[in-house]
């Protein structure tokens, strides 16, 4: 259904992707893509952002919401990347998780999208759609990630979260899923519930 599904975030390198994913928390990818061109033009590298105080960054990212926390995370992560990783975004889960503002979802996006590693990022769409389709029966993002890794072939992990995200955005909406138009309706245990409403 979604053969060309890729991240909607615009970026040119792993560092820009990391910053964009941090900005995308509780914010749409479309809004992040409005903010990042000016941001990356002014501050293109970890070194340029590491020199800032978070307060200086806030006006550039204000419209993404939670801008104080995100500015602190981005500046903190930039400083760590410069100080500990020679200005390069690390390539392991453990190292990524050591950066301020980086949780499992952000780390998995960077590993899968920037570095082509086998990783499944669980955002709200993935969480919802995977549970509705019966691929998982989990109540935390970590458990959804674990269970998806058991049912999705490893070679497809980097693609699976994009497919689930696209399906969540296009068809399997949070409040009113379009089950009658869904190609997976015959396979989906949740469809019967929503079609009765």
Q: How does the helix and strand content classify structurally?
A: mainly alpha
Given as residue ranges, the uncertain stretches (5+ residues, pLDDT < 50) are: none
> Mind summarizing the main beta sheet?
none
What series of H and E elements makes up the topology?
A: HHHHHHHHHHH
CATH topology of the largest domain: Endonuclease III, domain 1
Structure description:
With 197 residues, the protein is mainly α. The chain folds into two domains: 14-114, Orthogonal Bundle (Endonuclease III, domain 1), CATH 1.10.340; 124-196, Helix-hairpin-Helix base-excision DNA repair enzymes (C-terminal) (Endonuclease Iii, domain 2, Orthogonal Bundle). 57% of the residues lie in helices and 0% in strands. The chain has eleven helices and no strands. It has helices at 14-23, 29-42, 46-50, 54-61, 67-85, 93-97, 104-114, 124-132, 141-151, 157-170, 191-196. The protein starts with 13 loop residues before the first helix and ends with a helix.
């Amino acid at each position: 259904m979604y053969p060309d599904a890729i991240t909607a975030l615009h970026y040119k390198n792993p560092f820009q992707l990391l910053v964009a994913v941090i900005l995308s928390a509780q914010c749409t990818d479309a809004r992040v893509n409005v903010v990042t061109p000016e941001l990356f033009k002014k501050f293109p590298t970890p070194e340029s952002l590491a020199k800032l105080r978070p307060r200086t960054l806030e006006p550039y990212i204000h419209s993404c919401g939670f801008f104080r926390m995100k500015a602190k995370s981005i500046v903190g992560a930039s400083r760590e990347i410069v100080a500990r990783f020679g200005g390069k975004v690390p390539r392991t889960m453990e190292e990524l998780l050591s950066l301020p503002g980086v949780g499992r979802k952000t780390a998995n996006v960077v590993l899968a999208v920037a570095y082509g590693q086998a990783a499944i990022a669980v955002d709200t769409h993935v969480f919802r759609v995977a549970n509705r389709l019966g691929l998982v029966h989990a109540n935390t993002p970590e458990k959804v990630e674990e269970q998806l890794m058991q049912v999705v072939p490893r070679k497809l992990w980097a693609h699976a979260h994009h497919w689930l995200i696209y399906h969540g955005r296009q068809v399997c909406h949070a409040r009113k899923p379009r089950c009658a138009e869904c190609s997976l309706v015959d396979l989906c245990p949740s469809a019967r519930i929503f079609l009765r409403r």
